[in-house]
Structure prediction request, 1528 residues.
Amino acid sequence: MSQPVAPVRHVLIEGNKSYHQITEDLCSPTEKAPSREWIVVFALATAFVGLYVFAIVWTVWKGIGTWNLNRTINWGWDITNFVWWIGIGHAGTLISAILLLFRQRWRTGVNRAAEAMTIFAVICAGQFPIFHMGRVWMAMFTIPFPNTRGPLWTNFNSPLLWDIFAISTYFSVSVLFWYTGLVPDLATIRDRASGFRRKMYDLFSFGWTGSAKHWQRHESLSLVLAGLSTPLVLSVHTIVSFDFATSVIPGWHTTIFPPYFVAGAVFSGFAMVQTLMVITRKVLNLKEYITINHIESMNKVIVLTGTIVGVAYLTELFVAWYSGYIYEQFAFYNRVFGPYWWSYFGMMFCNVVSPQLFWSRSIRRSVWWTFFMSILINIGMWFERFVIIPTTLARDFLPSSWSLYSPTWVEISMFLGTIGVFFFCYLVFTRVAPVVAVAEVKAILKVAGDQYIGPKAKKAHGHAHSEPATKKAEEEG
Amino acid sequence: MHHDNGIWVSTEDLMRDESFLQAAEKEFSVENLDQTDGKWETNRRDFLKLLGFGLGAATVAASCEIPVKKAIPYVSKPDEIVPGVANYFASSFVNGGDYCAVLVKTREGRPIKIEGNTLSSVTKGGTSARAQASVLSLYDTRRIQHPGAVKEGNVNKMEWNALDREVKSKLSAGGNIRLITQTIISPTAKKALAEFTTKYPTARVVTYDPVSSAALLAANEQSFGARVIPNFKFGEADVIVSFGADFLGTWISPVEYAREYAKNRKIRGAKGAKMSRHYQVESHMSLTGSNADNRILIKPSETGAAIVALYNELTGNSGGPKLSNEKSAAAIKKMAQDLANHKGKSLVVSGSNNVMEQLYVNEINRMLGNLNTTIDFNAVSYQRQGDEREMMRLIDEMNAGQVSVAIVWGANPAWDLPNAAKFKEAFAKVGTRISFNGIIDETTAECTHSAPAHHILESWGDAEPKAGHLSLIQPTIAPLFKTRQAEHTLLEWADSPNLNRQDEQPYYQYLKSHWTSDLFSRQTKYSTAAAFWDMSLHDGVLEFPATEVGAVMNEVSLNPDAVTKPSGSELEISFYETVNIGGGQYAHNPWLQEMPDPVTRTVWGNYLSIPVEWDGVNEINGWKGLNDGDNVEVEINGQKLACTVVRTFGQPAGTVAIALGGGRESGGCGVGYGVYVNPVLPVEGGLIQYFAGNVKVSDKVGADKHFPSVQFHHTMGVQAMGKDEGKVINVDEKTLGWKGFQGALTDRSIIFHTHVNELPKFAEKMEAFHEEAEHLNVQTLYPDRTDFFGTGVKWGMYVDMNACVGCGACQVACVSENNVPVVGKKEVHRHHEMTWLRIDRYFYGDFENPKVVYQPMMCQHCDNAPCENVCPVNATNHSMEGINQMAYNRCIGTRYCANNCPYKVRRFNWLDYTTADVWPANEEKVFRLEGDDKPFLADNLVRMVLNPDVTVRTRGVIEKCTFCIQRIQEGKLTAKREGRAIMDNDVRTACQTACPTGAIVFGNLNNPDSEVSKLTKANAPIAYKVLEEINVRPGVSYSAKVNNSNEELYS
Prediction:
């Protein structure tokens, strides 16, 4: 990981950290008793997990009829939430893989948490396609394995089947990538722990010793997984968009969906990373690792992807008009001015208008603005999926079948429940693993630490090279 | 082991290893079998023992008790029953004056489906929704199961002979006996009644109809000297004028009339097409009015004024009441001109219940020369015989204590009379009150005794709906309960010498002897009485050649002052019979309750139709700002009704309308749905009037939380004068879109309509449309599959939207044939209705007086089906015969197919509607009858109606129209057995056979001789596929809707 670095780089690690101090800062949250805030939030999240379980049991037991979907609108909050969560689950891999390829060093401060978030978001997303099935107990029909059920086989023409492959692949690669990165850090915690904890971390760090061979293999595996993940970042949401793009329904049947969905996914993923990072850096006191520079970088990505999404929205409208096809025209007219106009305007405001504020440097660098905007974007992206799914279905070809839709408490509970699941997982994660990748941060200390390149830097270190990897283990302790 | 052929199985084998050779020698070595090496405490045998014990213990502990269901084979199989093969019995559906010649399909002794009897020249194989649904009422759990004494709405069981003894003692005690009946069209029943009245001379039969035609009968008696309904030949008329008579839906004999009417409406080819012209003068959008070419809107109290206006115009007279609407008055003048131009080829009918108005109509028909051309007396109809004035007299008699025994047979006066409360009061003064009715309806609840009659499908009987047109009723199942034929009961009580009580089925013998003695001698076809009876029973119908009866018109003085005087009030209300639940007689049938009203598209109840208004700019509003589902209070002559409103296009300003038949109070599933309106019906000169003036409607006082409407958007191109534009504009576009989006609604390739005179031009337009669509469709990456479907059989359908009158018979037939579950009001409100076939209804044309097009919509069986490629598990796929199939067992319920269906015909089992799941805990929200502890379809009695050829679907799977795949399979087997190619008649879908007008034709598109190919070809280019341009390649073609409106009527 040692590359020549231009001196114009931002300071990415503040506070004149030593290697030991980094270890202390990042590992201590897993070693201390949980704070009161943590306990309160965790209890709340657990309650929502309970709500989630209840909603699921209710749905499976009683039937999808406990939701308010109908003969016209067969997907509502379920698939809206699915796409929303999957979108959120894009930031982690993007930061880990693509930013790695682009040599963006600032990623080391946030990649661990972002990857964890990705995994938890994909877990949440996966719930919906599973439990929206009328007969979830027959879900294994979707898996192509040799069976005794006669000549029936899965339908490889169906985008839903592509989804299954796309998401399960994405999930497994993301988990592997995340865990690979975790191994040295878990070993670091192990080395500081004793008793049962030590045993457990020993087990989970696979007996990592920090030997040169270990590092070499770790680096190679990380690189291979990064290579694997890169196309996945683009493919997952592309395939999710095929659920709609390959259909015949006006408003769904558009070729713009794949890039538009990917941009939207990155957009919403970064927004969710911002939401979590702003809280995490405050609560776990990691402001020196997740700096304002990090936040600003991510806000730049947000303004870029938000604008791409905006262009996509306008392109859709233009193409609908330009197509000269009345159903297409009406579908988009209906999106904007139909019975769900508020969701369209909500989407437009949150996703296209509000991110433009980030052209201002002071807003971009304001923690409060960032947090507020990240929430707005999360809402906006939910609206986007709502606009695409139930709004489009509500008024399609035959006016006789037009209908309206609002969710029941079961659907709402299931959504709130997945938010509970997400935070439950994330909170557990902050207690068991370092939320910032210790080893990776250390690796860039000499090229991005303030004592090396900041105003306090010693001139001699202006062109510092990073330490050999083997040395790091010695300094830990 | 080593063989010389060079084959070896391992390196040891190849190397001839010593140990290997040794082992190979001992093929069945027992070494190592029982070996324990000390590490494992249990050996293989112990493991197996433990495994066996564990499994056994787990099984016992789980004690999976699966209910034992016994299927008992026949000990001696009846000759005519082959398990798995349906038997059809010719019979008749009769309820009061409602009649339909039918074939009853039975499976293993259970009637499961009603089909039309094509041998009848009255109904010609057509059916009505009511006839289709009658099979469900056989399995009504609310039926009275035994005779008995009625106490507090319950029937306390008695034996028949005990009841007979008790009743006979009352009957012979002297005192007046009154029988209250609906119209009886059975000659043999009348004979039995005659025996009864001979035995008891104080007995008299009082007949009335739930919805009255008394004035029509009275007027005909005066005009023609016979209290009958003449033979209306709607098929012979070029101009038809109806003053509020709903002859396609409910009036007298709608199945017969609809078939006749449609004959003159079907288009065969664009060149030289001709059709009749139909004017409907009415004050609410009736089913018949919705089919009319021109509607003339009047206030309900002005029907008489409209009739007189027509008469005056034809005769040059003046005088009589005037129409308040000048536009309508002018239109009637133009209509009169049209009638005068078609003398002898026109027909005027009226649904009015005012004698003078009907006399005027008779006179108009005479003047137009329609007697003996479009109206004749060769085969008069007996389908309405009642007179409510007799009921009014009976109430007086009962009040005076002059009646000692009252017998109610089929009628329900304690509910359907306007003065039902008075009736009940008077009825209570009768000492013995006996009901033959099959359920504890409002009248039976007031009786002292219940002597329940069989259901029509358990009965013997006959019917003569029209003179010389007889048909038989035969039982298709042994009586389910201890009921007894009503006629049998009467003969029993009359101590009839002609009733052989020793016989197993005494009334059967009685009926047979009537036929073989009286009717046998009137015919010449059969030489022996036995052959005559057998063939009549086989055919179900017996028709005598019509005897020419020239209509002679009596001189009747017409008095324009005796017609109804216009009320002059600002708001008037009309009450109408619906095609499904009638005047309430059919309210206890869940299939009919869940069949949407063709016009209002609502189910489970009657809703107040209010006019729709347009502000001239952007908003379509309900009258008074009321919205669908709002509750209002309606005050009619001081009486109040709590109604829920439905905004209805075509409802004239200053009027509202509500159907009869809601708010049943006792007896079955209709209880608690809708509003009981009968008490507010005014009575003029003893005749019930189906309208009222002096109506006040309150503002919104609440809302129906579960307003069940299956269609939210109703219009496709209605036009009116725009305020800003100052010219006639498209209201749909204006309210839904703006300029630039013009056409988003009207130009949808769903409905095409034109005027008959513009057909050639329209055909050119359609030609261009087909070309454009084909051009778009060939722009595909995927190979064309036409060749694939061009060989063998390719099933397809043709729907004639000019013949479709929207009556809904097909919809109920589909429900019956395909085990479509009833979901109830709340589920329909949530748009969870399960109907595989629906009839979309769109309004177009003038905003205030729109035209209507009905479009039966079922799975289009697309050859490029969008539903098929999106199913992840291949649960829906295409057959080689062009059928889009569903494998329910494979379906996991992602509902992607339903989303991707452009026609939205796929239905998902949201809840456990059919109670197919093993646990009952999820049935809480599933439809059940009021007061029942289990869901409707969980009852074993109700389940008898299920078609065993069609899978009952479970929760969580998608279902949809299969083109009646079970019938296709049956037809293919028949053809195969007979060693020939499949023909049209081998396979006819349920909707096709149910349709009274022949609007639906099904068959093999690859066979150039099939009717469906011929029709599609003959009607090109005005035949089209819905959404033809999206390359889904549907298998169903529709004909464009053609009207023959008088364009100058309002100019």
